[in-house]
Structures are given as C-alpha cells and as structure tokens.
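Hi R.,

Here's the chain you asked about this morning:
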Amino acid sequence: MSIRRWDPISELSTLRDQMNRMWDAVRPVIREPEEPRIDVHQTQDEVIAIAELPGIESKDDIEVEVTKEAISLRGEFRRLQDIRDEDYIHSERYIGSFARTIPLPVEVKPEEAQGSFTNGLLEIRIPKTEASKQKRSYRVPIS
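And here is the predicted structure, written out as tokens:
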C-alpha cells in the first residue's frame, strides 16, 4: 500500500464537479416566471405599448396600471385545457402569474390612457403631456 498525501483542493474540485452535474440535471425543471414581451414606441403625440399575451383569453385576466413614468402589467397565464400533471409527457409553456413594469421615455397623461386586447395582443395608447411633446434635443453645429 502506498501512502498518498491528502489534497483538499482536489477533493473540493471533485465535489464541485458532482454538484455541477446535479444542477445540470435539475436546471431544466426549475423555470423562472415568464414575462410578456413588450414593444414601446412613440409618435409626436403619444406613447404606444404592445404586449404579447398568448393564451390569455379575456381582458379580465389582465391588469394594467399607468403612471406618469411607467406602465405596469399583471396577469396570469392559465392552462387552456384541463390536463392532469401526471398525464403530461412534455410541458414548456409557462403557467402562472406574471408582472412587468416598463419605464416610459417621456412624461404621459395616465388618466387618458386607452387599451385594447385582440388576438393575444394588448395595445396601450397614452397621450404625452404638452411639455414632453416639445423637442428636447437640438443638433449643435460645430465650427
């Protein structure tokens, strides 16, 4: 029998490799909550936000809040069919609550915001304040 010197670094490295293999196996099961994808653009008079909400059938399942600086969405993705968990072979779609807040590029009039929901797309139109309609930057000539 030969005598080997104990190497704690080697043992820690082996333990780290084992932990990494364990997390690699578990990671696909642990999923972060999904956030709806949102596009925000502006015209001269308003800010327009369009959010993708696939699988949401009713506007009653969505809550929208607008402040002078941001838009907040909350809701819940639900299963469209009543399928027991043990009957699933593979499931990737997120089911559960979501919340998302997007800062706005300019000050808006939240009390005049309008929303519509069609085919899984939520569109929110928010008029700009008079001050934010003014051009805020000017090109500076350099001599």
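One quick note: The helical segments are 8-26, 130-133.

Cheers,
M.
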